[in-house]
Specification:
By secondary structure, this protein is mostly beta strands. It is 11% helix and 40% strand. It has a nine-stranded mixed sheet with strand order 5-4-40-39-42-51-57-53-60. α14 links the parallel β47 and β48.
């Protein structure tokens, strides 16, 4: 019977990434498809390691988790539109309570940021302090180095050494005693006065005609050039030698470690010259908006155009506080963040308040991606003047990001400026030639506005940043064809702002007016300021645009503004009777001549209907408990993470259909001291009135699998997937899975009230269960035992032995006991090292050590030697507290102070079950999976590695509904054979993976099994050669050809084998067109670019050498050459001819001297194409001489008979195959296999 739980791995998905505010199409080939399939490992802040293997050509990605030493909880993975998150059990509560940035666990995002282990040894963090807390004591946090003080947000930027993050995590998380002291209703918090830890993520960089478009020449005519105004450009540095800039720079500093302020990408120079270039290189023609301004250059983006959030914040603090810049231009942004609660936005708001500086920030370039909520942080900061882009015809640029701001629906962007086809200075260190170059983007629009602000600040040096912002907004050119959520108040007009006598509030913005059954009007005011010496009478007109007539109302249609003074008029926003949505307008002020002197943009959004959603959790006894909930609405792109206290939680949410699910530890199946994991909640909550969701473990039923033969799971995964639409693409999907390790004894799930009506819900349980490694019983009483890692197993078979109680298992406690050849039962004690118990038991002659846990859950602990690598000398297994204490009591009560136990051991499993149970629509009441011949296929597996070679194996399940593969952690396998029984659900495809430690990783093709079938799989066996499977197929796409031809497939079968280690295996791959070399690499991956569209002959050549005799003494070298014709095509598989071999071999890789050898050719991507001829030669002297073999064709294969001489030890093969269309392959394998 199988009813327990074990360890598992997780998965991956495309992630949102930081984007560039410069919209030019990149010619970078960083996304080279040749890199597809290469695993990336990310060490999380907890110390757990996550390995992501990207998919290819529509194949899902896969992900596995290596838990940190000492980890004993489960691992949860959640995938939504923002990426794939991997949450160790002890970290998820801190994310749910808001004290840990969830992006620290978004593994796809971390990889896209370059924060995987290969690219950086440190994890960059921003740590903010609780109010009143002292500076972060770096000495008290292991492995942490403080890089920057970030005073504006009361924090520090630090780098955590990845090799020590496990120790860091222990220091950050309160101790068990501190957790016990915390009230159940309190959300979890971090130790040491830390308020929150953020990922220190990366942001990226987002003329003559354009300066005239915003009216700058008119200001120049009035004598203003921005002279004396300090303007900072925080960007990618500067070409200080450019003629347009060399005399304008008054201060510069780099915030990028190891880089000076030189701009090697060209973005910062371009931006700075739009703002303040003199035009010297063009005789003044291409001057910037404020050519007299003093430039302060802060390099916050590196030479690749990216910068950490902390480098940007430090640059902002330096520019505003140290250099006292009046205007700060930031043509950069964080494409993944659209709220103003991130550290950079917080810093903008705080520095604006402290210093009076005006931050002018790009809106971003995601206008094509979504119709709203795409403005980048820190342009989302309320105090920032956020800039969109228009073209020369005053049309919004299609790339310009749109508002409103996410979170509160505040108005963003606030103005526009030219950002299409902008000619400005080119850095001499960047690509191109000449003094000038053209770029597009909100990056280019932003310095136009910053320059206009500098001109205005020259005239009004005492104005605050807010006054400058109001003036630029209220004097902008109204663009009626552009909604304010794209264009704000209008296109900036430097001349109008400079010459204005009267300015007004730039905007009246309520943001989101929360829904209420009895909504009340909201009152705001518009302030007009007269900078003239005479009073001004203004006539006010309300332009409601498309807004309802009752929504906006002015308190007066006329106002008198005294000389050198201000006056205000009330504006009432009345949401009563207004449909849900966003509404905008303008209040236009005219003077006595009818001329427009100022205008104020209006913005409000009325909320949708909302109701209370109450969340309550109960344990299996029906008592209140805490828990972490994933809540997802059908209209939301990202899931919410909520920490629900024992007292419950009530949310006020918009009318919608939600799914609310919780994974929670509960009482297990083996008594009060056992622990299981339950999935609780409701897949479909229709919030059309107040609702209560009860996460009720008392209603949960056990999820279990019954197998024909005894088995015990080493890995279990429980997952659900919820989508709210059946159309493609399925936006808003959430997939949530829990890895459940073997310390939990059971899995439970709360049946759904009914199946979902909207969209789909999938509930899946996955087990990997080998033959039970150790069963211990006393009569009919079966003990719940778990073999401990780092121990020597009992011999295969059944043993009867006496059990004696030995206290806590110290050497002194064995002194007066007779335990030789017996089982010793000891209590676990955390103060006694595990190996001390092992050593004492072994010295006393104990045959089996049974350790009774002193806590809940099963004990799983290293009982080997202290190096955590060398196994101990005897068998050790844990017993759960309840069962173990009962055993101790029985021993004490027995006259002989011992009991007879039966132990059945199978250290090397003869069989294994890979099982999947899938339910659609909801969670049913019957959750028992009954495995038998009606739903299983048989797979006979052979592992042919040398004795003692470390090899691991796993099998991935590809569900029909999933874009993600949740891979179980590979388990060690020994040389020999095993019978696997695999589920045959039609919606599941399987792929087996086998890894020779740090040498080769092999994978099978995707397979759908059918009940009753028998399959054969041979791994780490001879006839190793290049072979491609579905994820690796070569592809012609337009003028490019991508290939991945890994050279290490073994077994002669449908496998692929690759290596990422330099361990005695080498490969050289080259692509040729005719005699011309197109591309080459020292791996199987590569690409040919800019190929002719004509159909031309090509050759792909792979040469591989095996010098690792510990891995294999066969296939010492291979040479494979494919010839084919290719022309321009769209995502077409290149039809290479591929060869598979079959010969009867023993475990040592040897065939009889007279043996049948068959060769089966196939054509990639074209299974209907026939191979017309096969030529085979063999060599028995490592290729010195070759002998032509007669091969007989039958059913698509060619078979020959090997007649090896007695002097031969190896067989080498040379094969040529040609298909009916002329494509061919020639393959030579030296020492393909051995001979008996």
């Amino acid at each position: 019977m199988l009813s327990g739980v074990g360890s598992v791995s997780a998965s991956a998905s495309p992630s949102a990434s930081f984007s560039i505010a410069d919209s030019e199409a990149s010619n970078s080939r960083a996304a080279d498809q040749s890199a597809v399939g290469r695993p990336r490992t990310v060490t999380l802040i907890t110390g757990d390691k996550v390995t992501v293997t990207p998919g290819a050509k529509g194949r899902p990605s896969s992900l596995s988790v290596e838990e940190r030493p000492g980890a004993s909880g489960s691992v949860r993975t959640v995938t939504d539109d923002s990426g794939t998150y991997v949450f160790p059990a002890d970290a998820h509560p801190y994310v749910a309570s808001g004290v840990l940035d969830k992006r620290l666990f978004n593994v796809t995002h971390l990889i896209s940021q370059g924060y995987d282990d290969e690219h950086t040894s440190g994890l960059p963090l921003i740590v903010t302090r609780e109010a009143g807390a002292s500076r972060l004591p770096a000495a008290d946090l292991p492995g942490v180095a403080i890089k920057r003080q970030l005073e504006s947000i009361d924090g520090e930027a630090v780098v955590a050494d990845r090799s020590r993050v496990t120790s860091l995590w222990r220091a950050l998380v309160p101790t068990s005693e501190e957790k016990a002291d915390r009230k159940a209703a309190e959300p979890p918090s971090l130790a040491g006065g830390i308020e929150k830890i953020w990922l220190d993520g990366k942001a990226e960089a987002t003329l003559a005609d354009s300066t005239a478009q915003i009216g700058a020449p008119g200001v120049w005519e009035d004598g203003a050039t921005g002279a004396g105004v300090k303007v900072a450009v925080l960007d990618g540095g500067i070409d200080a030698g450019h003629p347009d800039l060399e005399k304008r720079i008054v201060s510069s500093r780099s915030f990028i470690p190891g880089e000076d302020v030189t701009d090697r990408r060209g973005h910062g120079t371009h931006v700075a010259s739009i703002l303040a270039g003199t035009g010297a290189a063009s005789a003044g023609k291409e001057r910037g908006v404020a050519p007299g301004a003093d430039l302060i250059i802060g390099k916050v983006l590196d030479s690749q155009g990216t910068g950490t959030l902390s480098s940007i914040i430090e640059g902002m603090e330096w520019a505003a506080k140290t250099e006292k810049a009046k205007i700060i231009n930031m043509s950069l942004g964080i494409a993944a963040v659209h709220t103003q609660d991130d550290p950079t936005s917080q810093s903008v708001n705080q520095l604006s308040k402290e210093t009076g500086a005006l931050f002018v920030i790009a809106a971003g370039n995601s206008g094509k991606e979504a119709p709203s909520y795409t403005v980048y942080a820190p342009g989302t900061a309320e105090s920032a003047l956020t800039v969109g882009a228009v073209d020369s015809a005053e049309k919004i640029a299609d790339f310009s990001s749109s508002g409103p701001r996410e979170g509160d629906d505040g108005l963003k962007p606030e103005v526009t400026a030219p950002g299409v086809g902008i000619l400005a200075a080119r850095s001499q260190y960047s690509n191109g030639e000449g003094y000038y170059t053209t770029k597009n983007g909100t990056s280019m629009a932003t310095p136009h506005v910053a320059g206009a602000a500098a001109l205005l600040a020259e005239k009004h040096p005492d104005w605050s940043g807010q006054q400058l912002k109001d003036a630029l907004m209220s004097t902008s050119k109204i663009t009626p064809d552009i909604t304010p959520y794209l264009g704000g108040s209008g296109r900036v007009d430097a001349s109008a702002a400079f010459r204005a006598q009267v300015v007004a509030s730039g905007k009246v913005d309520t943001g989101l007016i929360k829904w209420s059954r009895d909504p009340q009007p909201v009152e705001r005011h518009i302030t007009y300021t007269n900078h003239g010496n005479s009073p001004v009478t203004l006539r006010l007109m309300l332009d409601r645009g498309q807004s309802p007539s009752s929504l906006f109302a002015l308190g007066s249609d006329q106002i008198v503004v005294p000389a050198n003074d201000s006056a205000s008029v009330n504006l009432v926003i009345d949401p009563r009777g207004i449909a849900t949505g966003g509404y905008t307008g303008q209040v236009i002020a005219q003077d006595s001549t009818g001329a427009v002197v100022a205008h104020t943009v209006l913005s409000t959004r009325t909320d949708s209907e909302r109701y209370d959603l109450t969340l309550r959790a109960k344990d299996r006894d029906g008592q209140p408990m805490t828990g972490d909930v994933v809540l997802k609405g059908s209209k939301e792109s990202e899931a919410r993470y909520l920490s629900v206290p024992a007292t419950g939680m009530t949310l006020h949410l918009p009318t919608d259909t939600y799914t609310a699910m919780m994974f929670k530890e509960v009482r297990g199946a083996h008594g009060p001291g056992s622990v299981g994991v339950a999935l609780l909640g409701d897949p479909e909550v229709e919030l059309t009135d107040p609702r209560v969701v009860s996460f009720d473990a008392s209603q949960a039923v056990q999820v279990q699998a019954l197998t024909p033969k005894p088995s015990m799971p080493v890995s279990t995964r429980v997952e659900y997937r919820r989508t709210f639409t059946t159309t493609q693409p399925q936006d808003g999907v959430v997939m949530d899975a829990m890895k459940i390790n073997s310390t939990y004894d059971s899995v439970w799930a709360q049946p759904s009230p009914e199946n979902v009506k909207l969209g789909a819900f999938d509930f899946t349980t996955r087990w990997r269960a080998p033959q039970t490694p150790l069963a211990v019983s006393r009569g009919s009483q079966e003990l719940d035992v778990l073999t401990q890692p780092g121990t020597k197993p009992l011999p295969d078979g059944t043993t009867e032995l006496d059990a004696v109680f030995a206290g806590t298992g110290t050497a002194s406690e064995y002194a007066h006991l007779s335990v030789r050849g017996k089982a010793a039962v000891v209590r676990h004690n955390s103060s006694i090292p595990a190996y001390e118990q092992t050593r004492a038991a072994h010295a006393a002659g104990v045959k089996l050590l049974l350790v009774v846990n002193d806590g809940d859950r099963r004990l799983y602990k290293w009982y080997g030697q202290d190096d955590h690598a060398t196994p101990g000398p005897l068998a050790v297994a844990s017993v759960t507290k309840d069962g173990g204490e009962a055993l101790i009591a029985q021993i004490a009560a027995s006259p002989r102070k011992s009991l007879r136990l039966r132990a059945t051991a199978h250290p090397t499993p003869a069989y294994l079950y890979d099982l999947v149970s899938h339910h659609e629509g909801g969670i049913p009441k019957d959750l028992t999976y009954r495995a038998d011949s009606r739903n299983l296929a048989r797979v006979d597996v052979t592992f042919g590695q040398k004795e003692g070679t470390p090899v691991r194996e796993t099998r991935l399940d590809f569900a029909r509904y999933a874009d993600i593969v949740w891979s179980f952690e590979a388990e060690p396998v020994t040389r020999g054979s095993r019978t696997d029984w695999v589920s045959t659900d039609a919606g599941v495809k399987w792929q087996q993976e086998v890894t020779v430690d740090r040498v080769v990783r092999e994978a099978s093709e995707l397979v759908t099994y059918h009940a009753g079938e028998t399959h054969q799989e041979r791994w780490i066996t001879p006839i190793v050669r290049p072979r491609m499977i579905g994820a690796d197929l070569p592809t012609r796409d337009g003028s490019s050809l991508f290939f991945n031809a890994p050279a290490w497939a073994s077994g002669g079968a449908a496998h692929s084998g690759s290596t990422d280690w330099a361990n005695g295996l080498s490969q050289r791959t080259s692509l040729h067109q005719g005699n011309a070399l197109i591309a080459e690499s020292d791996s199987g991956r590569g690409a040919g670019w800019d190929l002719s569209p004509d159909r031309l002959p090509y050759r792909l050549v792979v040469d591989a050498t095996n010098d690792n005799r510990a891995y294999s003494r066969y296939s010492t070298s291979t040479h494979t050459e494919w010839s084919f014709v290719s022309g321009e095509a769209e995502q077409a598989t290149v039809p290479l001819v591929q060869l598979d071999y079959a010969v009867d071999l023993d475990l040592d890789g040897r065939a009889r001297r007279i043996a049948d050898l068959s060769i089966t050719p196939s054509v990639l991507g074209a299974p209907a194409t026939k191979v017309s001829s096969v030529r085979l030669e063999v060599s028995y002297d490592d290729g010195a001489t070759w002998h032509r073999q007669k091969a007989i064709r039958h059913n698509g294969s060619w078979t020959t008979v090997l007649l090896a001489p007695h002097s031969a030890s190896f067989v080498s093969l040379r094969t040529t195959a040609t298909d009916e269309k002329g494509s061919s392959v020639s393959q030579t394998i030296i020492r393909a296999h051995g001979l008996k």
